[in-house]
Amino acid sequence: MAALCESFTLCGLGPSGGVGLGGGLLALEPGPDPDHVLLTDRGRTATLFKVSDQKPLGCWSVKHGQIITCPVVCNFETHEYIAVQDDKVLRIWKNKDINLDKVFKATLSADVYRIHSLSNGGPVVLFKGGGIRTLDVLLEAPQQEIENIISDEVIKWSEAFTEGQQPVLIFATEKDGDFFVYVQKLKMDSLHKYKLEQQELSKPLSFTAYIKNQMITLLCLYSNDAVYKVLIPLQQNTEDEEQILSKSLLLNLSVSGSVLKGTSFVVLDKDHIAVLGSLAASGEESKECLTIWNTKFQTLQISKELPLGTSGQLWCYEEKFFFTHGKVLTVIMYKCETSSLAAAVGKLKDSQTPDVSSFVNWNTLGDEELVVSFQSQQSVALKSESKMTLRSKRNAVAKVQPDTVSVGQLLLNLKDAPTTVFEDELRQLMSKAQMPDFQATIGCVITALINRCKTNPKYYPRSFLLQIVQTRDLSYSLCPDLMAVALEKKDVHLLQICLQRFPDIPEEITYACLKVFLSISEAYLQRVDVNLESVICYIDIEFNNKEVKTEIVENGFNAEREQDIWDTKITKETHLTADGEFCPVGPQKAALLNAVLHSAYSETFLLPHLKNLPAQQAVLFLRYLYYLYVKCSEKINTTLPGIRSPTINQIMDWMCLLLDAHFTVMVMLPEAKQLLSNLHKFVRAQVRFYSELNKIEGSLRELQRLNHQKDPHTYSIEVLELI
């Protein structure tokens, strides 16, 4: 029995998709973690995604004019990424690398067809001429000669396996309508060539294979809407003459008069395959769909229509399908169970709902779906302590049973309960100890609260949500609607806590929080509760909410000396305000902005959003960053006091990012001119100061060396001149 479960969008594929996939998707490969995938576009870019969060973790591109010519793969032994640029140039890098021009580069002597990465045997490189090398051997001498095995044949497909600690590579070629299969065992350096038995009026469109018990099972999808099976034993005697492989019919892709024109397929288990293609009955328009077939009983198990169209490519990793649907990359989870005749014909009673506990998209689950989801997640049902009678809109009584009740069913029963009952039951639910899938339960509780907020705009359990976020280890992906509702309600305290505690907030939400924080008035913020622990140690506040002026001694910077040197005519009052002595925002707004500075982000994905920040807000934010920069420079260790205070690196990164996004606008704004001028002077003074320190660095080291040579018990006075 097979079933399709939850589906969601991983990323966009158009020019606005934000991950560099505007040229279309070339391939999808597994990443260094089971929850990671590597996407390679038909152009210059490779992107690493975390599937469960639908969040990009890294993006790398080659220069304009260059092109990535085969799928980027991960070396599972070293956690490095390997790409082939312009057929012959190898690029190898790690997560921390940003610029591919500065990573390892090796030019090879022959064109590469594909790189296959094995979890045990390392990467294997297949060249277009049929030559094969492991990556380690290839890197020892990148210009080594690569033999040409297949002459005029063209490689159509390849795959690699590990059998008994031995890498095995299989690839199929085509020449003048004939198809050939090559099997190479790398350690034994044995290569076998086979010819595929011809099929009248049809040819293979797609291949896949798996290996078991020293036997390769090659499956071929033919243009006559059938899947054939070919068995190739690994243990073969060396023979010079070419062997012909016979094939047997595995599956006809037709059901009830409809025929599936398949474009690609994958093996799910020994009894199931998935096929992507167009299903059409005679006289009807064809519809693209994803199907799962039972090869044991020759039946179609399930079909999902894809009205927006696909590229014809299908990938499958970790019980998830990946395929393009319209202008997005879609992920669908599936489940396959042991085949039985009853299940194959759809007569088996569904005694157990599909288990989707590995990933639950709380944003798309409705009330009824919550029940199904948590029936699969909770292996131990909860015993309710409440016997209170709940009245629905229809005045029907739904009593919470004292015996076993699933979490999803309990939440559904509470859907129409009064607010006090609703929140009390949720608190009791969270207080249950030793509960399986506890994090998933908390996520569902938050979803239930948010759903009630949406249906009843007057309802907003601010204190309850704050309590959950502050006391539980949550993430954005577990409750994605939470911050959206907090933004709508302008609940800045909840947003502040989420920014501090959630490790996976999308850049779009981070930008939305920044915009809200900058737009809210200081008068409003003085009336709300905000955690000031990140600012209270370096912003002194009087009762009239104005900062107390304190004398500033900046590292290597004397404002009066700088003014004399550059002959600037700035009044003392302007200098005091613009140079950062007074904080341009109140303490509440400063604390909120500090939470944004602490949030994780990728510059590639944040910069497009930051360009939409209104000019006045951008100038205000830059003034605050400049103020922090000056404050950090007062300290010898360039560290601000307090809890969760921004670091000098965070301040500098955000300042550079903001200037990149708005430099042209700021240059033209009169109110930003003085700020940019003062920022320029301050940075220049810092550079001059550190240059002077560098000049005496050698003398200081020599002094330290001399001190080590002295007898510590001997008293002496010496005069050293630093020239």
From TrEMBL:
It comes from the Eukaryota. Its main location: nucleus. Residues 422-722 form the Nucleolar protein 11 C-terminal domain. GO terms for biological process: maturation of SSU-rRNA. InterPro entries: NOL11, Nol11_C, NOL11_N, WD40_repeat_dom_sf. One of its GO terms (cellular component) is nucleolus. Keywords: Activator, Nucleus, rRNA processing, Transcription, Transcription regulation. It is found in: Nucleus, Nucleolus. The keyword Transcription applies. GO terms for molecular function: RNA binding. Residues 1-335 form the Nucleolar protein 11 N-terminal domain. SUPFAM superfamilies: WD40 repeat-like. PANTHER family: NUCLEOLAR PROTEIN 11 (PTHR15633:SF2). This is Nucleolar protein 11. It comes from Eudyptes sclateri. The lineage of its organism: Eukaryota, Metazoa, Chordata, Craniata, Vertebrata.
